[in-house]
Write a structure and sequence with these properties.
The strands form three sheets. Strands 12, 13, 14, 15, 16, 17, 18, 19, 20 and 21 form a ten-stranded mixed sheet that branches. The relative contact order is 0.11. This protein folds into four domains: 228 residues, no CATH class; 193 residues, no CATH class; 251 residues, no CATH class; 168 residues, no CATH class. The protein starts with a helix and ends with a helix. By secondary structure, the chain is α+β, with helices and mostly antiparallel strands. Helix 18 crosses helix 29.
Length: 884
């Protein structure tokens, strides 16, 4: 804005007059708005570029926070839909439940207002060729008094011989749902889907059931989006072969009596039934998702840094003009405080507008690209699937965007320092582009070394601080880019001296030595994004390789697996009377033995429990032992009274190898010795391996959760698999799969669960490409006058393009070198966190072509993006040099 414009502004209606500007410390809102409107008319493109950078940051941060909170938040809503106002519950310690007579004793306790029984089972529904595993709840009208699941259930839902499906379950099975207008009448009439039939596969048996209702959001709230089904309690007890048994009793406590009722419930439970908060599942799920949430927090931090750098680089384009505007205002006598108000107001407006756009984009990202798949947790939890948006992540993301804008707007305020000449910008117009001074370069070395040293110290002394160490590495990456750039220039200079025929290289080096701060900032943005892509993507690859190695060992326990459909962890028990004998008679079968397992609550986590014969235990322990000796541990497990537990479970219980761990079993709290600590066997809450005889005795059941079928030497595995399937028969609720198919299913499920890390890595890679392409395009734009001078001297466009290609290669070298080296270190740090803190079976960091492939991809993509502006710049008119 020129002095003439400012003078016209001071006399315009609503514009700031000269005298009030001098007399008043605060500018009027109308004056601030007027000045910003004039700025947008003149420099709208620059503001748009800055806003896009900020919006990108806000979108990434908001999408990450929303995607991270949606699974736990929506699942917590599901839990509260079921339990209503109940605050306590009795929960079975095994799938067989406990005696329903416990309900009457609970209801007679003085502090209990109401109680309601539930029977929960994992079941599979089939409709045509479609199959779905659901959480099946058996309820009765007693749940109505708790305002829980049965509050709005139509009466027909709990009819005999029928099952009610959630809208999500019906959609997955291809059963039509009610129209939205029909949902309002769902309590009194049958709607879409009613009358259809499905096959229920439950505990080894198959039953044909009528679909009583398809329950939408107006009927069962957020449960409509989960894979759930409901039927009468008595009917489910009959079908499951569990007459008179329930898995839960929900308890509504009178006001002020919760502590007393808890003590009374514990006395009734006698150490054989769990007494817990009614919403216990929500806390257990938060613990299971903690590693994924922490990785999302790391990505959100990197996104904030990216946003600051994007905004900073975009606003650096406006620095010369803003400095001139500040000088004009000061020459007119405007107070420093008024100028600060003007810039702060503009930053707030830009940050707020860009943040709103970013929130909209982040919402779309959270619902699509970053929508977390948590199917790997389905066997242990009832999960919500809808995207849950709350005020907190939106506020945090918007504040991050506004803060990034304000920080990036600080540079022009340096002209307000006391002692600075009012018209300093006009005396050094060519230096107004914020070039990086030699003094600043000297300070960058210790500034980059400090966070690097601190990150190394944290990683070496406290693996739990690894994600904080990665955030420090991200900061060090940004600060190291100018140093890497200087190193690349020195290497290029040495090459030019050795090979005199490379006449274009000295020209490219000379132009890059005058590179201003904005291209360096964008190169730093690209390096940071490349760091995140390699660190997170590499750690994901190492984790997948480690999990796949375990999946291969686990699936190889049996040549043919027989169990409930989709039960990869063998935790769903079934009735198999005479089944093992029938399968053993199949031609080519060498042996059949049962496996058992389930889940157990322990120290705030839902651990995976595997019960195996001694030979199978030895195989599972191979490569998974963290502390202890594998052969000794296998021998002790075979003796009985010993367990092998995940290292993080042992750490939480403060027990080491040889110590005693108390397990909560249906027989009571039983102390067992720890034979070894292991990885978490790819189950984030941790795993426990024990002897099959101990499990049968302590859980009071001989029901198998899987059958291990061994193929005789020389027999055709495919024919044996077909024979086993024939032995099961069409009426069976079980399915037979080969070891290879089971392994592939586990790999696919785990890969799906880790898909968000891959998507984050891809987003960061795209950000690196965009940032580096912007940096190179900016450098080419700044070179127009010098390129016009070369044209004036007779240099052909082809040679100019060669010079620009060398400049681009050198700039890419600085950003890629820094990002790759920091990314590999970050990958090592995250691997250490996953291995030592979460207990995952992570493969060791090995030589991989992936970083080279990423750099090659980035280089090709960036050069392809930069080629058009480079071609146009090479044909710049020579008259531009004369005009300058």
């Amino acid at each position: 804005m020129s002095p003439a414009e400012l003078r016209s502004t001071s006399t315009a209606p609503g514009g700031p007059s000269r005298e009030p500007t001098r007399a008043q410390p605060l500018m009027r809102l109308g004056a601030l708005v007027y000045l910003y409107r004039r700025r947008l008319r003149v420099h709208g493109v620059q503001e748009l570029l800055a806003g896009l950078g900020i919006a990108t940051s806000v979108a990434l941060v908001f999408a990450t926070l929303v995607a991270s909170a949606s699974v736990t938040g929506s699942s917590s809503q599901l839990v509260h839909e079921v339990i209503g106002p109940a605050t306590l519950q009795l929960r079975a310690r095994g799938s067989g439940g406990f005696d329903e007579a416990m309900l009457g004793r609970v209801e007679r306790l003085p502090g209990v207002a109401q109680a309601a029984p539930l029977l929960e089972q994992t079941a599979t529904l089939e409709a045509g060729r479609r199959r779905l595993t659901v959480s099946l709840a058996g309820a009765d009208t007693a749940l109505t008094v708790l305002d829980g699941l049965a509050h709005t259930l139509p009466r027909e839902t709990l009819a005999a011989g029928a099952v009610g499906l959630s809208q999500a379950s019906a959609a997955a099975l291809g059963i039509p749902a009610a129209a939205p207008s029909q949902e309002l009448a769902a309590a009194t009439m049958r709607t879409g889907g009613a009358g259809e039939s499905v096959t229920l596969l439950l505990r080894g048996e198959a039953a044909r059931l009528r679909v009583s209702e398809v329950l939408g959001g107006a009927t069962i709230g957020t449960l409509a989006g989960a894979d759930v089904a409901v039927m009468p309690l008595v009917e489910l007890q009959r079908l499951a072969g569990l007459p008179g048994r329930v898995t839960n009793v929900l308890v509504l406590v009178r006001h002020g009596a919760e502590a007393r009722v808890r003590r009374e419930l514990e006395a009734l439970a006698g150490g054989r039934v769990e007494v817990a908060a009614a919403d216990q599942d929500a806390a257990l799920l938060r613990q299971a998702l903690r590693p994924s949430d922490q990785a999302s927090t790391l990505f959100a931090t990197i996104s904030v840094l990216l946003g600051v750098l994007f905004a900073f680089a975009a606003l650096l384009l406006t620095v010369p003009e803003r400095r001139r505007a500040i000088a004009d205002l000061r020459l007119l006598g405007t107070r420093r405080s008024a100028i600060v108000q003007m810039l702060l107001f503009q930053a707030l407006c830009l940050g707020a507008a860009a943040s709103l756009v970013g929130l909209a984009g982040g919402w779309l990202l959270a619902r699509s690209v970053l929508h977390q798949s948590s199917g790997y947790l389905d066997e242990a939890f009832t999960l919500g699937s809808h995207t849950l948006v709350t005020a907190r992540p939106a506020l945090e993301a918007a504040l991050a965007g506004i803060l990034a804008t304000c920080l990036a707007s600080v540079v022009p305020l340096l002209d307000l320092r006391r002692g600075a000449a009012l018209d300093a910008v006009y005396r050094s117009e060519r230096n107004s582009g914020a070039a990086l001074s030699h003094r600043a370069r000297r300070w960058l070395a210790p500034a980059a070394a400090l966070p690097l040293a601190l990150a190394t110290y944290l990683f070496a002394t406290d693996p739990a601080s690894a994600l904080g160490a990665c955030e420090l590495l991200a900061l060090a990456t940004v600060l190291a880019v100018p140093l890497a750039f200087a190193a690349v220039l020195r290497a290029g200079g040495a090459l030019a001296e050795r090979h005199q025929r490379l006449t274009a290289l000295p020209v490219a080096l000379a132009s890059l030595r005058g590179t201003r701060l904005r291209p360096l900032t964008l190169a730093g943005t690209g390096a940071l994004a490349l760091f995140g892509a390699i660190a997170l993507g590499g750690a994901r690859a190492d984790l997948l390789r480690g999990v796949q190695r375990f999946a291969h060992t686990y699936a190889a326990e049996a040549d043919v697996w027989v169990g409930a459909p989709g039960d990869n962890q063998a935790t769903v028990d079934f009735r198999a009377s005479g089944l093992a004998q029938r399968i053993a008679r199949v031609h080519g079968v060498a042996a059949v033995q049962p496996f058992q397992g389930g889940f157990v609550q322990l120290d705030g986590r839902r651990a995976w429990l595997l019960a195996r014969p001694a030979a199978a235990e030895r195989k599972l322990l191979a490569g998974q032992v963290v502390a202890g000796e594998q052969a000794s541990a296998a021998r002790r497990l075979g003796e009985g009274g010993w367990v092998a537990v995940s290292a993080q479970i042992a750490q939480a219980a403060h027990v080491s190898v040889g110590g005693t761990l108390a397990l909560r079993t249906p027989s009571g709290n039983v102390p067992l010795r720890v034979a070894a600590t292991t990885t978490n066997l790819a189950w984030s809450p941790g795993a426990i391996l024990m002897n099959e005889a101990d499990y049968t005795r302590l859980w009071r059941t001989s029901a198998a959760t899987a059958l291990d079928v061994r193929v005789a030497p020389g027999a055709d595995p495919a024919r044996v698999l077909a024979g086993v399937r024939n032995a099961l028969g069409p009426a069976s609720g079980l399915r037979a799969t080969s070891a290879r198919a089971r392994e592939a299913s586990i790999d696919a499920l785990v890969g799906e669960g880790l898909s968000r890390l891959g998507e984050i890595s891809t987003l960061l890679l795209l950000a690196a490409m965009v940032a580096m392409a912007s940096a190179l395009s900016s450098a080419i734009w700044q070179r127009r006058v010098s390129l016009a001078t070369l044209r004036l001297a007779g240099v052909r466009p082809a040679r100019i393009r060669t010079i620009l290609a060398l400049e681009s290669a050198l700039m890419l070298g600085a950003g890629c070198l820094t990002g790759v080296l920091a990314g590999l270190y970050g990958q090592l740090v995250i691997d250490g966190y996953l291995r030592h803190v979460t207990g995952f079976p992570v493969a060791t960091l090995a030589a991989s072509p992936r970083p080279v492939e990423i750099v090659a991809l980035v280089a090709v993509a960036v050069l392809a993006i930069v080629t058009p502006p480079a071609w146009l710049a090479s044909r710049v008119s020579p008259t531009l040099a004369l005009n300058e």
